[in-house]
Amino acid sequence: MDLSRGSRRPPAAGLPPLPGPVRLPSPLEPLADPAFARAGLELFLKRDDLVNPAVPGNKWRKLLPNLRAAHRLGLRRVLTFGGAYSNHVRAVAAACAAWGFESIALIRGEELAGRPRNWSLAGAEAQGMELVFVTRATYRRLRHSLAEPETRRLLTRRFGECLLLPEGGSNGLAARGAAGTAAELAAQLPDLGPRDVVACAVGTGGTLAGLAAGLPPGARALGVAALNAPGHLECEVARLHAEGFGRTFGNWRVDHGHHGGGYGRVPPELEAFARDFEARHGLAPERRYVAKTLRCLQLLAAEGAFAPGTRLTAVVTGPPDPEPEPADAPRPPS
Ligand SMILES: *Cc1c(COP(=O)(O)O)cnc(C)c1O
After folding, report:
1. CB 126 within 8 A of CB 103
2. Is there an atom of ligand 1 within 6 Å of 181 CB?
3. pLDDT tens digits, 181-196
4. Best residue for ligand 1 mutational test, from 49, 51, 58, 81 (most atoms within 8 Å of Cβ)
5. Are 234 and 301 in a shared domain?
6. Mean of the per-residue pLDDT values for the chain?
7. Cis peptide before 25 (omega within 30 of 0)
8. Are 32 and 176 members of one domain?
């Protein structure tokens, strides 16, 4: 879609406030944990899960700059993509409802159209989002060709002029928004630098791209892959660095050893870790991303992967799901 043409409204003032409090900077909490102390490591949690109840975590940081841009361009409608349990789709529905945009999501799996909605899709629909169920083949084709003018023309013909947000909402603007987490951290830990490793989960890579870009010299970002896609995720983060910041960064890497078997998979050892973490710290980690990240850090710490004296910060990118994704949920072929 060519944003430089077409009907527009005149630029208006900023977006109205979101319902519920917006907690920025998000809290930074030290966590006393013997598994880390034994390895001579400090651990902090950056509680992005507490940013806003309706649009939590990294989704707030990634969506806000995009919706501001849409508002400036006079776009009234947002179109995005996601799976049946997509946190991004729910966050877009909530943010659009709060800020007065119409929202549409193309959902992977046309077989879901006639079934009762799961809690995630029901939540999105309750915010007024229109769900369009598409086959996995169509979904894949659209996702991969979103940047192509022909795809944009096709989507604009069908859905009208929209802000097109890619899967997971990760684009250059989103990465710039996600850099806010690092900027806050630098203010909360004034000596943030060479002894710091800041970790976050990686789904589509926008959060890691922003985190790495926003860290001060010497500090390193560690992304924990939540899906099995070595190589691809690195390409995505590099692409987002080019798109959002016009340069490359050398202070990050992606761990591919702790995705638990693939996206959405929660193997028994991960579930056990999450329950134990909750019992010890009173914080139930979200399973698909946050628990994988925390468990990865704990296992790497036990292996001696971090030099003693390292200060680890885990970004808690979102709150736990109200209900887990069923283990037998249909999955795309990968
Ligand atoms: C969406 C999401 C992620 C993944 O973020 P990306 O920017 O897509 O890599 C991580 N954690 C939580 C809780 C999420 O909802």
Report:
1. no
2. no
3. 999 999 999 999 999 9
4. 58
5. yes
6. 92
7. yes
8. yes
Indicate if 243 and 286 belong to the same structural domain.
Answer: yes
- The predicted-structure confidence for 270-300, as pLDDT tens digits, reads as follows 999 999 999 999 999 999 999 999 999 999 9
Helix axes 87-99, 57-72, angle to 10 degrees: 50
Residues 125 and 252 in one domain: no
127 and 80 in one domain?
yes
Q: Is the CB of 317 under 6 A from ligand 1?
A: yes
Last residue of a domain, one of 106, 131, 161: 161
Long-range contacts, 148-152 (Cβ 8 Å, 24+): 149/2, 152/1, 152/2
Catalytic-residue membership of 170: no
43 strand-pairing partners: 312
- Whose alpha carbon is nearest atom 13 of ligand 1? 318
Report residue 248 as tokens.
């490359």
Residues forming a β-bridge with 220:
197
Residue 183: give the domain boundaries: 28-54+171-315
318 close to ligand 1 (CB < 6 Angstrom): yes
Residue that is last in its domain, among 161, 180, 206: 161
| Enclosing H/E stretch for 214 | helix 206-214
